[in-house]
Amino acid sequence: PEEIEYAITNKNIVIAGKRYPLQEVSRFWITERWGHTLLVFETPLRFPGRLELVLVGIDKEQVKQRLEEKVPYEEEAPGFADKAAGWLSKRLSLDERG
Questions:
Q1: Is the pLDDT of residue 30 over 90?
Q2: CB-CB neighbours of 25 under 10 Å
Q3: Do 39 and 63 meet the contact criterion of CB atoms below 8 Å apart?
Q4: Which of 15, 14, 28, 8 is nearest to 71 (CA)?
Q5: Could you tell me which residues come within 8 angstroms of residue 59 by beta carbon, excluding any fewer than 6 positions away?
Q6: 24: which residues sit within 8 A by CB, 6+ positions away?
Q7: Which candidate, 3, 11, 19, 1, places its Cα nearest to that of 70?
Q8: Core vs surface per residue 59-92: b (16+ CB within 10 A) or e
Q9: Distance between CA 80 and CA 84 in Å, rounded?
Q10: Is the pTM of this model over 0.70?
Q11: Rounded distance, CA 40 to CA 52, Å?
Q12: Taking a C-beta distance cutoff of 8 angstroms, is the pair 27, 72 a contact?
């Protein structure tokens, strides 16, 4: 996937110029997938139901602490898609060509 810019303000999540109001986010959690730390937001919207941001060079505990002031933090039990992604990531390397 291509790299995009995103920002989290006290009112919005901004991804590639599109704004998602924090008041429309029902919860968030932090997970690990494919060797990266992901910040996941769940929305009640039909699309997108989730926003996933890769945290690179950012202290996840500091992000969690600041976001908890605006949005409920919850540990997410892995669903089918998460389990399938985890299974695939253990068996396939995105860096391998062949």
A1: yes
A2: 20
A3: yes
A4: 28
A5: none
A6: 43, 44, 45
A7: 11
A8: eeeebeeebeeebeeeeeeeeeeeeeeeeeeeee
A9: 6
A10: yes
A11: 4
A12: yes
- 55, 57, 56, 47: which is closest to 20 by C-alpha? 47
Alpha-carbon dihedral angle through residues 66, 67, 72, 77, given to the nearest 10 degrees: -110
Do 85 and 40 contact (CB within 8 A), yes or no? no
* Contact call for residues 38 and 53 (beta carbons, < 8 A): yes
What's the one-letter identity of residue 7? A
pLDDT in tens, 13-24: 999 999 999 999
Q: Give ∠ CA 13-15-72 in degrees, rounded to 5.
A: 30
